[in-house]
Specification:
Blueprint: H1 2-12, E1 14-16, H2 17-24, H3 28-40, E2 44-48, E3 51-54, H4 68-74, E4 80-81, H5 83-89, E5 99-104, E6 112-115, E7 118-124, E8 133-138, E9 141-146, H6 148-157, H7 165-169, H8 180-189, H9 193-205, E10 221-222, E11 232-234, E12 239-241
Parallel strand pairs: 5-7, 10-12
Antiparallel strand pairs: 1-3, 2-3, 4-5, 6-7, 8-9, 11-12
Protein name: AbiEi antitoxin N-terminal domain-containing protein
InterPro entries: AbiEi_N (IPR025159), WH-like_DNA-bd_sf (IPR036388), WH_DNA-bd_sf (IPR036390)
Length: about 250
């Protein structure tokens, strides 16, 4: 039974105890003992409570791992690889984040995890902001990831999850790699005036034409909320330009 069960689980690579119960017909109480034994033998590895990954027979347990995007996409449902991780995936930034960022609308008790030495950060957002997601093949898995345009507006929405505005601004040097009209629609759909203002300012700076309405408010926001409140002001978009973008030229 143990060998047959492992063969079935190996096709999934990542599985939950509920899935094992459904496949085997064995009670969860008995399964916990079985899975504990399989883990001690190095045949499976627990990635979080009730969730495991199968270790191939030819692999060394201490050296084996799945791609971090695959593991990240299994930690919560629904989910999408996002923010700094997606920026790097599309080549918009050369910086390799030390954390894998995952976006979700679901509640997750533990939002920061370390699995196989990799850090994961789960960011919960409102359902209306969960869109612009595509699936890409990674090692036999279809992994959900925010598309190029959604990645940009997400980072403008929450710059702290992308290393700051300088990192997302690098994407504007590759303006031919994203759809400007889709970017505009996505920005409006986010329902956050800060996204509109940061996008408007960056498009002006990089001489990218975009049809956005100027803010009517008298209040100013920080271009980069992760940086100190100092710098010149831009009256058109009502932003305090508290970072230097000249180095990106």
């Amino acid at each position: 039974m143990r060998i047959e069960l492992l063969k079935k689980l190996a096709r999934k690579k990542i599985f939950t105890i509920e899935e094992v119960a459904e496949i085997s017909g064995v009670k969860k109480s008995s399964l916990r003992v079985l899975l504990s034994r399989l883990e001690k033998r190095g045949l499976i590895e627990r990635i979080e409570r009730g969730k495991y990954v199968v270790i191939p027979l030819e692999a060394e347990r201490s050296e084996y791992t799945l791609h971090e995007f695959i593991i990240g996409s299994q930690l919560v449902q629904p989910s999408a690889i996002a923010y700094w991780s997606a920026l790097n995936y599309y080549g918009f930034t050369e910086q390799i984040p030390s954390t894998v960022f995952i976006q979700t609308t679901a509640r997750k008790k533990k939002r920061e995890l370390t699995i196989f030495g990799v850090k994961y950060k789960i960011v919960r957002i409102k359902p209306e902001k969960f869109f612009g997601i595509k699936r890409t093949w990674i090692e036999e898995f279809q992994v959900p990831i925010t598309d190029r345009e959604k990645t940009i507006v997400d980072c403008l929405d929450k710059p702290r999850y992308c290393g700051g505005i300088v990192e997302v601004a690098k994407a504007f040097k590759n303006k031919n790699e994203f759809d400007l009209e889709k970017l505009r629609r996505y920005a409006l759909r986010m329902g956050n005036s800060a996204v509109i203002r940061r996008l408007g300012y960056l498009c002006d700076y990089f001489d990218i034409p975009i049809d956005l309405q100027k803010p009517k408010t008298r209040n100013y926001i920080l271009l980069d909320p992760t940086m100190p409140r100092r710098g010149c002001v831009d009256g058109k978009w009502k932003v305090i330009v508290n970072i230097e973008l000249e180095e990106l030229e």
